[in-house]
Every structure is written in structure tokens, then in C-alpha cells.
Amino acid sequence: MVDPTRVLFLCTQNAARSQMAEALLRHYGGNRFEVASAGLAPTTVHNFTRKVLEEIGVDARVLHAKSLSEFLGKVRFHYAIIVCEQTEEHCPHIYPFALQTLYWPFDDPVQVGSSVHGLHKFRDVRDQIATQLRDWLHQGALENDDTFDDAERSLAWDGKEESSPARATSDTEDSIRARPARKARWAKVQFLLGNVQMIGAVVSLFLLVYTGVSTLALSAVVLTCVCTTVSVLLFGSHRRGGKKAPR
E strands along 89-177, which residues? Predict the structure, then answer.
């Protein structure tokens, strides 16, 4: 059995952004990930954090504020993802016990307050974090062929059907394979035309030599022959390169 990828989300108070990121990745990644979150100055999980997660069917019952000191030197993570602005007070700048540190700064919705506008801000930040997580997974940095369950292939609050990552990848690969084939066909035509030009120039040179035409005309034909030959060599090189399969 493959060991799960351990991810730690970090911010200032561990009240909103890092909590939403923890719950969303656990929802999308399932048992492929061990997810946690923490803050340098933890307070409590904001009520709007739970509300906006539950609105989209994400379980927020297990969320609770945690201090970074609970993990320092005790747990080694594959990824530490910092979701606060570096200019914020108490925003972590580095986590030394992670193999890789990523920076995904999002606005702090807690600063907007508990008004209706504040709730809208929580929803906006939730959607931004969800999109960032899905893009990250789709990039293949952590993704295996069976990483996503059916429920994870679309955002819970978006009813629009999206094409699967496998289908999108297949379409992209077909497009990439088609481009070298078109280039190879066009290069072949250019190569054949160049051969015709070269043969014509050689015949003209032969006739000029044996008919005693002026030296100026002879020089012009020689120059044409040289230029045509160089063109053919270049086209031939391009033709051979066009057959190389994409990596």
C-alpha cells in the first residue's frame, strides 16, 4: 500500500483559510492524503468557515484550531503550503520539516467581519482555495490515475459538467502528435520542389557551358544553383526533424 502524501496548511490564526484548505483537500483527496492545518497565533475556527464548507457538502465537524508548535520537529510533511500574505503579522515564512514549501496567499476573510459582506468574502476565498487545489492536483504533481473519485471531479457548488482530466490529456496528446505530422508533410513538398529547382539549375548550367553563353549569365546560373542547393539541404534537415516523435 502506498503511503499517503502528508500536507500541512499554514496561516496566522488557523481560523479560516488554512482550515478551509484542510477540509477541501481531505474531501478531494480522501485517503490519498494526510492533511492538517496550523497557525502561529491560533484562535478558534470562524463560524463562517464551517458554514461555507457545509454549504458545498464538505464535512467541517473535525476542524479545530491548532498551533504550529504541535507539529514542529514531530511530524515530517511532504508539502507545507502557506496560505497567508507574507506581510501579515504572524504569517509563517518557512516550515523546515517539509520536503517542499508552497506559497498560496489568499485574502483573510476574517478581516471583513461577520456581516453579509463578510459571508460573501468567505465564499469567494473558499472558491479560490478549491480552484487552486484542483489545479494543483490536475497538474500531476501528486495525481495518480485514480486519485479522484466521481464526486471530486466537479465542484460541489457548480452543476456544470466538466471533461475528465484523462480525456483532456488524451485530446492534448492527439493535438501534439498531429502537429509534427503536418509539418513533415509540408516539409516533404518543399523538399521535392527544391529538388526540381536544383535539377533545373544543373541542366541550365550544362547548356550554358556547352553553348558558349557569356560569363555573366554563367555566374548568375551558378549562384542560383548554389542557393537552391542550400535551400534543399535546409528543407531536407527540416524534413528529417519533422519525423521526430514528441516526447
Answer: 98-103
